[in-house]
Amino acid sequence: MGNEIQKVVLAYSGGLDTSIIVKWLLDKYKCEVIAFAADVGQEEELKGLKEKAIKTGASKIYIDDLREEFARDFVFFALKANAIYEGVYLMGTSIARPLIAKRQIEIARKEKADAVCHGSTGKGNDQVRFELTYYALEPGIKVIAPWREWDFTSRDDLIDYAKKHGIPVPVTKKKPYSMDRNMMHISYEGGILEDPWNEPDESMFLTTVSPEKAPDKPTYVEIDFVNGAPVRIDGKTMSPAKIVMFLNKVGGKNGIGRVDMVENRFVGMKSRGVYETPGCTILHAAHRAMESITMDREVMHIRDGLIPKISELVYYGFWYSPEMNILRALVDESQIGVTGTVRMKLYKGNCIVAGRKSDVSCYRQDFATFDKDVVYDQKDAGGFIRLNSLRLRIRAMLDKK
Q1: Residue tagged active-site, from 67, 97, 181, 272
Q2: What is the dihedral of CA 77, 82, 85, 86, to 10 degrees?
Q3: Is the Cβ–Cβ distance between 257 and 280 less than 8 Å?
Q4: Which residues fall within 8 angstroms of residue 15, CB to CB, at 6 or more apart?
């Protein structure tokens, strides 16, 4: 089998698993290994990656800045769709995987590689998200998933392998939990968090202060939307990535965006996850407020009925599926005219809508008022109610018989 694969593109983070995988691929497949690291806003984790990848045996490494594409095409789509998995999770990890896998396939084509490889375990969702994207974009590609192939059974096994082969790894003992970080969020899973009765330790959180330690005065921010996408903060135009990163800092200082949930993985098991998503928590609340005055009722209700499905598709990894293409077009169409300004009040973990306005608002005070007006005759409501109650009255008459 090793002869079939001459060149592999590996999704590389420089952590324990992928550091081991470079050497393991060289040993098992006797092939060239090209490392690929995507910058989706994980910040300090990218330092020293190039030197490390080459030192451990990769022939070259791509380190691509995908932050703007991530925010514009992925994070903001989820925002416009109000996509929240199981009512709580904003899907920071889920939504980054199809972008990373897409770029990995592009590099594989450029390098004429035979295969792609990822370091996801055989128990989680990420293996599915990576591989569904690989096959959707390049149906003939070979996929190597070491966690489903090798004989290692624990992180201790990996550390022993690393020491044996002189591979520098950032872990010397088992971490109390596993982390995934990008511009949108930080996730924490496993270890001490596996017991859902255990409250997360305060020292774990990296981007948010606890609500108890947040400032005693509220912070106000104004967010301008154009067709469902945020474009300005406090009147200042910013790129999509800069908007998310700015709101991460503001939200983090005010203790906003912590989530602790037990979720249903696609592979069939339940998993406890703790998340920090400060910026996007603010954006979701603001976006909902913007829709409330600019969006047609029936359009909103149809889109809202699709939120569980869209969220499921994102979470499961079907970003590049035919059904997602249809839903993406529907979401984009629904957002035309979702334009205006929302003022948010941030206070000790609370994200409060303090005001909303729009030049294309469907809300009209003169229509909603109880004072006399010219567009709504209250007498008309009697006929409206009688017509809508007709089937209920017929049902009641039949029941009496």
Answers
A1: 97
A2: -170
A3: yes
A4: 119, 169, 170, 171
Closest by alpha carbon to 95, among 105, 85, 108, 106?
Answer: 85
Q: Is 126 a catalytic residue?
A: yes
Cα-Cα-Cα-Cα dihedral of 341, 346, 352, 354, to 10°? Answer: -50
Name the catalytic one among 59, 155, 178, 260.
178
CB 224 within 8 A of CB 237: no
Instruction: Please report, to the nearest 10 degrees, the dihedral formed by the alpha carbons of residues 328, 329, 331, 332 taken in order.
Output: 110
Over residues 238-282, the pLDDT tens digits come to 999 999 999 999 999 999 999 999 999 998 999 999 999 999 999
Among the listed residues 94, 114, 126, 187, the single catalytic one is 126
Please name each of the domains of the chain with its CATH number: 2-66+93-174 (3.40.50.620), 179-295+337-357 (3.90.1260.10)
Are the beta carbons of 167 and 17 closer than 8 angstroms? no
**pTM of the predicted model as reported, rounded to 2 decimal places:** 0.93
Of 341, 182, 339, 205, nearest to 260 by C-alpha is 205
Cross-strand bridge partners of residue 55: none
pLDDT digits (tens, 9 = 90+) for 172-211: 556 667 889 999 999 999 888 999 999 999 999 999 999 9
Please check whether residue 286 is in contact with residue 353, taking contact to mean a CB–CB distance below 8 angstroms. Answer: yes
CB 40 within 8 A of CB 102: no
Is 72 annotated as catalytic? Answer: no
Q: Give the Cα separation of 80 and 185 in Å (integer).
A: 18
Burial label, 231 (beta-carbon count in 10 A; 0-12, 13-18, 19+): middle
**What are residue 172's phi and psi, to 5 degrees?**
-110, -25
